[in-house]
Amino acid sequence: MNQRIPISKVKPGMILSMDVINHNGSILLKKGVTLTDKTIQILFNKYSISEVVVKYEHNGEAKNNNHKMEIIGANPQRYTNIINQLNHLDSTGLLDMIKNDAIKVGKMMLETNFIQHTKKVESIFFQAIDRTEILELLLKFRVISENGREHFNRYIKTSLLATAIGINLNLSNSELVLLARAALLYDIGNCLVDQNLLNSDYILPKNEKKKLNEHVIIGFQILQEKFPKEISLPAYQHHERFDGSGYPNGLKNNDLHLFSRIIAVVDVYTALSYARPHRPAYPTSEIIELLLGSGDILFDYKIISEFLEVINIYAEGSLVLLNNGDVGIVTEIKGKPIGKPVVKLIYDKKWRSLHGKEIDLSTNNLYFIKKVID
Q: Which residues form the HD-GYP domain (predicted)?
């Protein structure tokens, strides 16, 4: 039985059931260690550890079950059943399916989302997914997580974009492969939290938000067992912020791993570009404005500027919907500010012809692109 308890209530003789990690993601004590008065004092006084997870005996079975549900979701039996089924299936065939699907999705996204490094990003991505442990985690996340297909696509997009930023930052090939893998798996903890919270159609109150925030700790614990810290640490740090206002430890920019800073920017972009039950998808222009306005406040501005260099927000030939209801085609992006191309108008909101009138969104502040029409 595992229980997360405040360090003030820890007693000598208790056994850790989860590694204790410091604010930088380094392991202080391994799970299975029996705590002593001295180690408890060191954790509290030297490392400011506020709570630990220990093996905890309790007569109340209901409390047992409630804690388990906090960690693996509203229906723990569903998770257990799925894992058992996966373990008895032809894993080779399933992994081949996931790999081929990832390649297909990746190629499609590279064709529509990038203006730089397409071939190199593709090569790095193929290397990143060519490992059994990566594919196994992607498979489990895809099957266990509700809305698994949408999440699967989103994390592939995150990986591709993060890799492109890494190329702009002159990372080595081996570093790029690690970054691509980290950006595929950084949110893996979300498959072991309450899916009702993850897919809620309302803004979560503080107590429920705290439960959902545990996904960063869960993800780190999953990844650190098989992967180097370059891959596990972004799972722990991707919700930290430049100014120290993030979680779980309120770390500031210089204390964060480079991969964590890159993934934090791309995570926000991809998260806001998908609709959620409690809100619609944000227009790309609004996401870009949000990121630019958060530079060196919430996010590293250098990472944001490199991100804007690699992404193709509106490709030439894209069919777009403007904020006034007009429909047009993007005809020119070169030399224009991010998100403000020239658009040839085709129809107004009542589908009346506009005869190809062109509007330059970089000089006309009354209009902006609301969304791309698929």
A: 129-323
